[in-house]
Write a structure and sequence with these properties.
This protein is an alpha+beta fold. The chain has 34 helices and 30 strands. It starts with 17 loop residues before the first helix and ends in a 5-residue tail after the last helix.
């Protein structure tokens, strides 16, 4: 077969016999490929590397920031302002001490600052693919031209024959040719924590899920034990790892709800501003009968354009989100992308992995069956505290000697260690064996003590074919209560007659029971009847149906140490001890978190690679689903097209035995149904779904670098409850963002109307310069807005459904509030402006006739302070609130007022900002008019309370 006729990776390799796979790839298990074959295949398939598609460059990201419509308008304003200053400079019309181009410089500085803020948020390069590349092995051993050689992994081609040993990282996907006790850790790819026992001789159905393909190996996984010879079937982007890389790069990032709302806000503000500018210019031209005052009208237009753009808003939002990230970190949620803080508040569906997130990632024995009795076992984690219970009543091991006998087997037939690390019980070794050690300790059986009573002298290790392991121990006599008397420990005295050795066996209940001919009954053994055998099998099925992982235990007294390799003969005529059922127990705090989700209108969904029975047991226990709810497996999902999945996705809360493509499809189907999805994951297989989800959540403890780089948020404690806490924080952030947008834009509308009114009511000149407006938008609005951003949460924040992520920024009355408050703002200020103009133009006035402009400037700024105090609550009056519950608002009001007065009374600042000195009467009038804003908002609350309506 030539290289050009080789299969294109479509062959389902796990469903083929080894010889068939070798024929398809025209390879030889003993001699491998020839040098000529390799060159042809390198040309056809390319290097065994993950390819990266080109993204936006840093310059493109930076330039994109200045395509924002509000920034474009500000750039236009800066240029026109600079042109007018240049004309005044050339004509000599500058006032004494006036600095030319200061408005232009200030506006361009704001534009550049906002551009940099946007760039910093967006420019964090996605490093998920780089992390994927780290998982590929640099060197690999292959058979080529009948010789074993070591080559660079990128030179591998389909048809190569790899040799694997313990500790190696697998460099390509391949079909096993032969293996010896091969165990591969595939957790990064499949999500399964335990190493997988591989078998070359198997031929599997085509629809076998990724985690169950026991006759193939995958790129990026690690050999834990054993050795193997592997036929390379897929390289580069056609491997399972390559498919993930392809999916990862195919996922396009969508703008977050906040980004969409800010775009909408900019469009509305700029459009409204341009319409208003056109009205003012047209009105002025008509009123003047021509263009003789066009420069003044242009200055009015410039001020209006600056006034309508909330220059400080991007900075306030960025700081607010940053403060939110700090609060979330304290709750073990690390935010990688700032907009994700607010986005969390819109989540409607949380798709969570099971292992480690909903569960403790610690196997805990739940049930023990001995001598036709089934005992419940209490306790959490690996801490050896808990009880044995029979029919709800506590039972001691002394009352039921079968428990002690079974516990000895659990402790002795065990290779793990139970120890205390940093004040907590932890396991060194296999989690399943750790659970058995914890069970034994609950019965008073400690492994260290029993190692001296039963000294291990031989073993038959676990293998995937045998599905069991046995340990042979020499029985040691121990001191008894009688002086100088020694005998066998009473817990195992009934196991022996005069034999010096004991063999303990654990493994598959069916296979271990099949090799048993007797059963242990308290203090003796008896022949195992068929009725007893059927009852044990029924109990095994009952435990398995609850999602428990079940092991069977037996023992056998031996007269001598069995020879190596005699397991088939030695593991016969066993004495049955009992069954142990264990579960990766749910985290205790998750039940409450799931209930809080439901109260908040958020639907939790479990997506796991684990068995469906286990998945249903955990989901039912936690309240994620009911026992009768539908469960969808990976195989069933595979047979569905996208439309069928979309129709079912709202009805299914448990997905079991899923693959990477399935997770991505589930997220996409939910999004097509209009759901806003948070997705958790820790493995490489989760990266595409994490990137596709509206909020991708990676695991901080067990998560791979790939999953973390693809995520928006990292759970530092891998705990589902932390997601719920972060979601609550997201809702608080969004509520506060809406609060300060109301605050900022209400005043902006008032500024625009006030500026527009000046020429229309016949007042000379523009009341506010662009520089003064920038001061108001950045300082007078900015500092109190930041203080409002840390307002504590409302009591019912998690007692309501999430607000639609697609709702307008003006939804739920926010738009009408801004217009209403803006108009009131304008009426108060225009009334003050009329009075101030008449006051400063009255005969005998001693001050500068432009002082009225400073009064307008001061009134607008101080009125905003009253607005900030009143807007803290939508419904409660200010006198009903604790003034110190948000001390930052009081501090911001005091500091901003002092800064505003400095602009009036400190000569250098007065000259720079173009203000004028106010006497005490004028300042008092400004404060009096400003106070009306606070009074109006408080009266609105009283009115709405009387009418029984809830404010925005």
């Amino acid at each position: 077969m030539s290289a050009n006729s080789l299969p294109e990776g479509a062959a389902v390799w796990h469903s083929l016999e080894v010889d068939k796979a070798l024929d398809l790839l025209d390879s030889n298990a003993d001699s491998g490929l020839t040098s000529q074959d390799i060159q042809q295949r390198l040309q056809k398939y390319g290097s065994n590397e993950l390819e990266e598609t080109a993204g936006r460059s840093a310059w493109e990201i930076l330039l994109d920031q200045f395509k924002n419509i509000m920034l474009l308008m500000l750039i236009g304003v800066a240029l026109i302002s600079g042109f007018l200053d240049l004309m005044r400079l050339q004509s000599g019309n500058l006032k004494p001490g006036e600095v030319p181009f200061k408005d232009t410089i200030a506006i361009l500085a704001i534009v550049i600052l906002n551009g940099i803020l946007g760039y910093v948020q967006e420019s964090r390069a996605e490093k998920a693919l780089a992390a994927l590349k780290k998982m590929t092995s640099p060197l690999v051993r292959v058979i080529r031209d009948a010789r074993l050689v070591e080559i660079a992994a990128k030179e591998l081609v389909p048809g190569d024959v790899m040799q694997l040993e313990a500790g190696m990282q697998i460099a390509a996907d391949g079909r096993l040719i032969e293996e010896s006790s091969l165990q591969v850790r595939e957790s990064a790819l499949t999500g399964e924590a335990e190493a997988v026992n591989k078998q070359a001789s198997l031929k599997l159905p085509e629809e076998t899920s990724l985690g169950d393909r026991l006759n193939v190996v995958f790129q990026g996984t690690e050999v834990v034990q054993g050795r193997a010879k592997v036929l390379v079937t897929n390289t580069g982007m056609t491997t399972e790892l390559g498919k993930i890389a392809t999916m990862l790069q195919a996922v396009e990032s969508e703008p977050t709800p906040l980004q969409q709302r800010m775009t909408q806000l900019g469009n509305v503000l700029v459009t409204g501003s341009l319409i208003l500018v056109a009205i003012v210019v047209a009105g002025g031209v008509i009123k003047d009968g021509g263009f003789k005052n066009i420069q003044e009208l242009l200055e009015v237009s410039l001020s209006m354009a600056v006034a309508v753009v909330p220059e400080g808003l991007p900075a306030v939002i960025t700081v607010t989100l940053a403060l939110g990230t700090q609060r979330m970190v304290r709750q073990n949620a690390l935010i990688r992308k700032l907009p994700a803080v607010e986005t969390l508040g819109s989540v409607t569906t949380i798709c969570s992995d099971k292992t480690g997130t909903l569960t403790q990632n610690k196997m805990v024995v739940q049930s023990v069956s001995t001598n036709n009795k089934t005992f419940g076992v209490t306790g959490d984690g690996y801490a050896p505290t808990g009880d044995f219970q029979l029919d709800g009543q506590k039972i001691s091991s002394e009352e039921s000697p079968e428990i002690s006998a079974l516990s000895v087997a659990c402790a002795v037939c065990n290779d793990s260690v139970l120890q205390i690390e940093q004040g907590e019980w932890a396991i060194l070794g296999d989690p399943t064996e750790g659970a058995l050690l914890t069970l034994a300790r609950k019965a008073g059986i400690e492994k260290d003590q029993w190692n001296s009573k039963l000294t291990r002298v031989a073993e038959f290790p676990f293998s995937s074919e045998r599905k069991r392991m046995s340990v042979i121990s020499q029985v040691q006599e121990v001191a008894t209560s009688e002086a100088s008397s020694r005998s066998v420990d009473p817990a195992i005295a009934s196991f022996l007659q005069s034999e010096p050795y004991l063999m303990f066996t654990k493994g598959s209940p069916e296979l271990t029971l099949a090799r048993s001919t007797q059963i242990h009954l308290g203090n003796h053994s008896a022949p195992l009847t068929e009725k007893q055998r059927q009852k044990i099998l029924a109990e095994n099925d009952q435990m398995a149906s609850k999602g428990l992982r079940v092991l069977g235990f037996a023992y056998k007294p031996l007269a001598q140490i069995p020879p190596e390799g005699s397991d088939e003969i030695s593991e016969q005529n066993l004495v049955w001890l009992g069954l142990v059922g264990m579960l990766d127990a749910p985290r205790p705090e998750v039940r409450l978190a799931v209930q809080e989700c439901r109260d908040a209108g958020i639907r939790p969904v479990m997506i796991t690679g684990d068995h469906q029975l286990t998945a249903r047991a955990i989901a039912t226990d936690l309240g994620i689903a009911q026992q009768s709810d539908r469960l969808l497996t990976g195989q069933e999902l595979q047979r569905m097209n996208d439309q069928e999945l979309e129709q079912n996705v709202d009805l299914v809360s448990i997905y079991a035995r899923v693959s990477p493509e399935h997770k991505l499809r589930i997220v996409q189907a939910l999004q097509r149904r209009g759901r806003f999805v948070a997705m958790t994951g820790d493995g490489v297989n989760d990266a595409p779904a994490l990137k596709q989800a509206d909020i991708g959540i990676a695991m901080g403890i067990t998560g791979t670098d790939v999953s973390k780089e693809a995520s928006d948020m990292v759970l530092l404690d891998d705990n589902f409850a932390t997601i719920v806490s972060a979601t609550k924080e997201g809702r608080v952030v969004y509520t506060n963002i809406r609060r300060f947008i109301k605050y900022i834009l209400g005043s902006n509308i008032g500024e625009v109307l006030t500026i527009a009114a000046a020429p229309l009511i016949g007042l000379g000149g523009v009341p506010l310069t662009p520089l003064q407006i920038l001061w108001m938008n950045l300082v007078t609005d900015g500092l109190p807005a930041l203080a409002l951003a840390v307002e504590p949460p409302e009591p019912d924040v998690m007692q309501r459904p999430p607000f639609s992520p697609r709702e307008s920024i003006f939804a739920r009355g926010l738009g009408s509030y801004m217009i209403r408050i803006g108009i009131i703002f304008a009426i108060i200020t225009i009334a003050l402006m009329w009075w101030a103009y008449q006051h400063t133009h009255a005969p005998g006035y001693q001050g500068d006739r432009d002082t009225w402009k400073t009064m307008v400037f001061t009134t607008l700024c101080i009125a905003q302070m009253g607005h900030a105090i009143a807007i803290r609550s939508n419904n409660r009056l200010t006198i009903e609130m604790n003034p110190f519950s948000n001390i930052f608002v009081l501090a911001a009001v005091v500091i901003t007022t002092i800064l505003q007065l400095m602009l009036v009374y400190v000569p250098p600042l007065r000259d720079f900002f173009g203000t004028h000195y106010l006497n005490m009467q004028e300042l008092g009038v400004c404060i009096g008019f400003s106070a009306l804003m606070f009074v109006w908002i408080e009266l609105e609350k009283i009115f709405l309370r009387i009418m029984g309506k809830k404010a925005v």
